[in-house]
Specification:
One of its GO terms (biological process) is protein import into nucleus. Its main location: cytoplasm. With about 775 residues, this protein is mainly α. Among the domains are: about 220 residues, Serine Threonine Protein Phosphatase 5, Tetratricopeptide repeat; about 190 residues, Leucine-rich Repeat Variant; about 70 residues, no CATH class. The protein contains 40 helices and two strands.
Length: about 775
């Protein structure tokens, strides 16, 4: 054996050439016979043997007999050592060389559809003929399965030549390999079928030719499977009215596939039924009693045979049918669907039986102890489908689902945090508001007789803290957003039901997210997601402050950190956008309204930043700070009073901005007027009106000129900025000022105003 190998290859190179090809042929013949008797002897020499074989096969200068013997030896060795690493490496290199040849094709706009396969001098033609000759020997399924990454790289390449090579390869394999050797049609046909929409005409043409080869050489499996797939896409894009004339024929053919087809055909038929149901909407109701029994038979048989794939698809299909026809028609079968998720065999367990929870958890949360990757992936996929079905049933069939809330909640809640699959976690999170909504509706209409399930408040105690902890641990930004949305919805629905410790934990995590996302350095890719998380977390906290407004003072220490976040958000204009600023303002507003002077006392040292921001030439910033000044004036009491001069100056600057009537600046202008009105009328109660005038006139009229300037701005803008009632109260106050002030002081203040403002003020007082 060693001598025969030495004749063929030495130091990774062929040890012979055309002059001594006879010896090589004799060596091949000896090795072929030896392989039939003792294939185990070749294991240490696989690398050298396959390198020799592929070098010969790739060189057309060798005699046909030499290449035939090399191919025969390759086939024998592949029978025994197909999955050995040296074989895979050498075979992969050989396939890669063929694909490179198939890419050697010119981009000729005048191409007439003729590839001239008789011209052996062309590298492209050499690649076609090599793959056609050797694919049957290597095995079409083996090539597509073991080198899927290589083919996918070409299918998704930006170079059209690479995509064309991949499509042509599938076409060649379909034409030259026995159809019995291709077990998974999807590996062969899925990507070429998608290529009919390719951007390059040569790739589209190759895809059409490939489909022709599939139709001729993979009959009838290709026709059955992909006719159903075509029906799926057709019905997916059809309106109900367009489908109606063909419904009888389509439904009858699908039922025949469900009754008589092999498993693969049944799977595709179930998918097609689901698509048909979604598109036909209410028109499917007339077929419900005909179709549903067949679907139930498939589901029960799949459950009895532990056929998880068919069971999953049948449950999905039944659910889609039920949701389409409505709860009235589906009510008799909904319990069956849920029960099928709870047990793989029919069960008569009573509601109070603890086995219901245990069985449901085993179905949706099976043991992942098996180390085999394919088993884990299958289990995870089944679990995701089960969660989606439960979620769909809960969403659409609320009245028929309330009896199952306990089991579903206690099953899904642990999956929020601990499941390995993102899809399972996301669906479980989305289900929480739905479950609370169903439970609340059941509570409001009165529990079903004999119902001993979780009360609504207890369900809130169970689900909301679970969402909070999930938010803390969740690594995916997309799922974090889903959790925040669900958390806000649950909190709004639950009302003030959480316990003190639960609230503290919520505040700790939500404020941590707000502060972290505010200071996080952002790449371009992450920016949008971080921004969404920040805003959604802010919305969630705002909902909390509204729901728990009566008890906010209990959590003042934690909310103080929110105040610090608010100031940071206002005064870093290069890092903060308007949405984040608005979120910060709403949080500040709620806290200030409830905690009043205490809240303002905490950030009194930063008030000057608020007033300084009034002078920024940014209308969004001006609008937000004006609103904050208004809230501070309304609730800040003595703390704000000591800063009235700076506040009035800032508001006056906003109102007298040269861009004041520009549409972009009007909201800021309006906010400044509103802020001034809040301050003015917090001082101008009937019992305090005189005191207000006296305070402004006191201390050398330090504040008075600013107040009158602001009033003049409001009068000049008319009812564009203030209501008629507000304008009348301003005029009344100005009359008091004029009567209380010495004439020369009044005249001095008027002269400091812009002429147009002074004129309108005098006209209003005269009228």
């Amino acid at each position: 054996m060693s001598k025969a190998i030495e004749i063929l290859i030495f130091e990774d190179k062929l040890a012979f050439d055309k002059s001594n090809e006879d010896y090589a042929q004799m060596a091949f013949e000896e090795l072929i016979e030896l392989t039939k008797e003792r294939p185990d002897l070749f294991l240490p020499h696989l690398k050298d043997m396959f390198q020799c074989i592929y070098q010969i096969l790739d060189n057309s200068e060798f005699e046909e007999k030499t290449r035939f013997l090399a191919e025969e030896l390759m086939v024998l060795l592949l029978l025994h050592y197909r999955d050995e690493k040296p074989v895979l490496l050498r075979t992969g290199k050989f396939i890669s060389q063929i694909l490179s040849r198939l890419q050697d094709i010119d981009d000729d706009p005048s191409w007439d559809g003729n590839d001239n396969f008789d011209d052996d001098s062309r590298v492209f033609v050499q690649g076609v003929k090599r793959l056609a000759q050797y694919a049957p020997a290597i095995g079409g399924q083996f090539i597509l399965e073991k080198f899927k990454i290589m083919f996918d790289f070409n299918f998704f390449s930006e170079k059209w030549q690479s995509r064309h090579a991949a499509v042509i390869s599938c076409s060649i394999i379909a034409r030259n390999c026995p159809k019995e050797s291709i077990n998974e049609l999807d590996l062969l046909v899925e990507q070429p079928m998608k290529a009919v929409d390719d951007t390059h005409f040569r790739v589209r043409w190759a895809a059409i030719n490939a489909i022709q080869e599939f139709s001729k050489n993979l009959n009838p499996d290709f026709q059955f499977q992909y006719k159903l797939l075509a029906l799926f896409y057709f019905s997916n894009d059809c309106t109900s009215g367009l489908l109606t004339p063909y419904m009888d024929e389509i439904v009858n053919k699908l039922l025949r596939c469900l009754q008589r087809g092999k498993q693969l055909l049944k799977e595709e038929a179930l998918t097609a039924v689901g698509s048909l149901v979604s598109s036909s909407e209410d028109h499917f109701q007339v077929y419900y009693k005909t179709v549903m029994p067949h679907l139930k038979v498939i589901m029960m048989k799949a459950a009895a045979e532990s056929n998880s794939v068919l069971l999953r698809k049948s449950i999905e299909c039944i659910t889609m049918v039920g949701l389409a026809v409505g709860k009235k028609m589906f009510s008799d079968d909904i319990q069956m669907v849920v029960q099928s998720l709870i047990s793989l065999q029919e069960s008569k367990l009573e509601r109070g039986d603890p086995m219901r929870n245990q069985v449901l958890r085993r179905v949706i949360s099976p043991n992942l102890g098996d180390d085999r990757t394919e088993i884990k992936e299958q289990v995870i996929e089944e679990k995701a489908v089960a969660c989606k079905v439960l979620f769909s049933c809960a969403t659409e069939l609320m009245e028929g689902f309330d009896l199952w809330i306990d089991e579903v909640a206690q099953t899904l809640v642990p999956l929020i945090t601990f499941d390995l699959n993102e899809q399972v976690r996301e669906v479980s999170v989305s289900a929480m508001p739905v479950l609370l909504n169903i439970s609340k509706a059941s509570m409001e209409k009165g529990y079903v007789e004999g119902y001993q399930g979780l009360p609504f408040e207890e369900l809130c105690f169970y689900t909301i803290p679970a969402l909070v902890e999930a938010l803390h641990k969740e690594p995916s930004m997309e799922i974090q957003l889903t959790i925040l949305d669900s958390l806000e919805e649950c909190m709004e629905m639950s009302g003030p039901t959480l316990k003190t410790e639960q609230i503290k934990r919520f505040l700790h995590i939500i404020l941590e997210i707000l502060i972290t996302s505010s200071t996080l350095s952002r790449s371009r890719v992450e920016y949008e997601q971080i921004e969404k998380i920040h805003i959604t977390a802010g919305d969630c906290l705002i909902t909390f402050t509204e729901v728990y407004k009566a008890s906010l003072s209990q959590f003042f220490d934690q909310l103080l950190s929110c105040m610090a976040y608010m100031w940071a958000s206002f005064f870093l204009p290069n890092d903060k956008n308007a949405k984040e600023r608005r979120t910060a303002f709403r949080i500040f507003s709620d806290v200030a309204e409830k905690c009043q002077e205490e809240a303002l006392k905490y950030c009194e040292g930063n008030l000057r930043f608020l007033f300084d921001a009034c002078y920024e030439r940014n209308p969004e910033v001006q609008q937000i700070v004006a609103k904050c000044i208004g809230v501070s004036a309304q609730f800040g009491g003595a703390i704000f009073k000591s800063h009235i001069k700076e506040a009035l100056g800032g508001l006056n600057s906003i109102m007298r901005d040269p861009e004041t009537l520009n549409p972009d600046y009007l909201p800021a202008h309006d906010a400044a007027v509103s802020a001034l009105e809040k301050y003015t009328f917090s001082m101008m109660t009937n019992s305090m009106k005189l005191r207000f005038s006296e305070e402004l006139i006191h201390n050398d009229n330090a504040h008075l000129s600013k107040v009158i300037a602001v009033f003049a701005e409001i009068l000049w803008a008319g009812q564009n900025l203030a209501s008629k009632g507000t304008v009348n109260r301003i005029i009344e106050q100005l009359e008091d000022f004029r009567s209380d002030l010495p004439p020369n002081t009044w005249a001095s203040i008027l002269s400091s105003l812009a002429p147009s403002r002074a004129k309108i003020l005098q006209l209003k007082l005269l009228s």
